[in-house]
Design a protein that fits this description.
heterodimer; A: about 160 residues; mainly beta; Immunoglobulin-like; 11-stranded mixed beta sheet; 11 strands; globular; disordered N terminus; B: about 210 residues; alpha+beta; Glutaredoxin
Chain lengths: ~160, ~210
């Protein structure tokens, strides 16, 4: 599943060149697993992206921010349902990726929020995103666009 | 359990309101002798199981037509409140309803799935139509004016609050439960976000039975 170890430059170059794959990327001691997003409808000006970030290093890192040419703004959000109420909030200080741990951004928890989509996220395409980490720096990844019914990168929806 | 509690609270509120009403009547010294408090409570037509949730509404459907509670009558329905820019719980809930409907087999066609956008400032009926069209199963999309939405939100006890986010946009905190209504538009139960599919399926079987 994961390609390479600590081959940051080569991996990023590969990621930028290879389209349409929910592929994994390694950058320094970080391994980005299967970024994916749900398709959006025209008029739906925001969407969510999901991925896993494994920190194989000995120092904590932090996902500080993200950007993408498809959206006016990209934020890191946390969604909660407490007392039956859905709340979504920006992680203003970013998301800590502790040393030796894997943090999953998945439905029901954290997500990358694409705000002000310039065009719909079309099924079967992929979305270029630059993730910025406090230590690992910039990592270019592509989010594979799956059906809106998808619950995980593997599932790809109910049908 | 939460659905019973949810239904109980409005019931208590109705009872309290009735008692206050009775108190006023009594204070005025009018018909005090003939109407006892227990009789008022017993005769009030709105008091029945789950009477606190649901009621008449008027909205605009995704195709621009008028959607009312009357139009939904005759078939049970599952109603969910959200907005199209909600990236997680809304698609998850609608995808789940689509999946559960499939699992119900032939019974899956015996109820309607209704998605009400509580974000009329952003979601036009046409937007809602193209959004619900992605789920691979018929979903009745709707929204309304601020007044129309305020009414249905109140009737269903749905919490809705706009919250600004960085960059000038906003998100909406909202109730994540799916309300299951019978073919007469009466509240039966809710499917909670954290509930497993087996329980949810059992509840859906109840409304289509």
């Amino acid at each position: 599943m994961l390609i390479g170890t600590r081959v940051a430059v080569a991996a990023i170059a590969f990621a930028a060149a290879a389209p349409l794959l929910a592929q994994d990327v390694a950058a320094e001691s970080l391994h980005i697993g299967q970024p994916w997003s749900r398709q959006t409808a025209p008029g739906q000006s925001a969407g969510g992206g999901f991925l896993t970030i494994a920190n194989r290093g000995t120092a904590d890192d932090r996902l500080v921010s993200a950007s993408s040419p498809v959206a006016a703004e990209v934020q890191i959000h946390r969604m909660t349902v407490e007392g039956g109420i859905m709340k979504m909030r920006q992680m203003a200080d970013g998301l800590v990726i502790p040393a030796g741990r894997t943090v999953a951004l998945r439905p029901g928890g954290y997500h990358i929020m694409f705000i002000g989509l310039k065009r719909p996220l079309a099924l079967g395409t992929s979305v270029p995103v630059t993730l910025r980490f406090a230590h690992a720096g910039e990592v270019a990844v592509r989010f594979k666009v799956l059906p809106i019914t998808a619950m995980s990168a593997e599932e790809g929806g109910d049908d | 359990m939460t659905d019973e509690q949810g239904a109980g609270r409005p019931l208590r509120r109705v009872r309290l309101a009735l008692w206050i009403f009775v108190g006023i009547v009594a204070a005025g010294g009018v018909i005090l002798a003939v109407v006892s408090p227990s009789k008022v409570a017993r005769d009030a037509p709105s008091i029945s199981a789950g009477a606190g949730i649901g009621g008449p509404f008027t909205l605009t459907a995704a195709d621009g037509s008028v959607l009312t509670d009357q139009r939904l009558k005759g078939r049970p329905f599952a109603i969910f409140f959200g907005f199209t820019r909600c990236p997680d719980v809304c698609p998850t809930s609608l995808a789940r309803m689509a999946k559960l409907r499939k699992q119900l087999g032939a019974d899956g066609d015996k109820f309607d799935i209704v998605f009400v956008s509580v974000d009329p400032g952003h979601d036009t009926p046409a937007d809602i139509g193209s959004y619900v069209g992605l789920f691979g199963t018929p979903v009745v999309g709707a929204t309304g004016t601020a007044d129309q939405l305020a009414r249905i939100e109140q009737e269903y006890g749905v919490y809705v609050r706009k919250v600004p986010i960085e960059g000038g946009d906003y998100t909406i905190d909202h109730t994540a439960a799916i309300f299951l209504m019978d073919r007469d538009g009466r509240f039966v139960t809710t499917i909670d976000y954290h509930e497993n599919d087996r329980t949810a399926l059992k509840k859906l079987r109840r409304i289509v039975a």
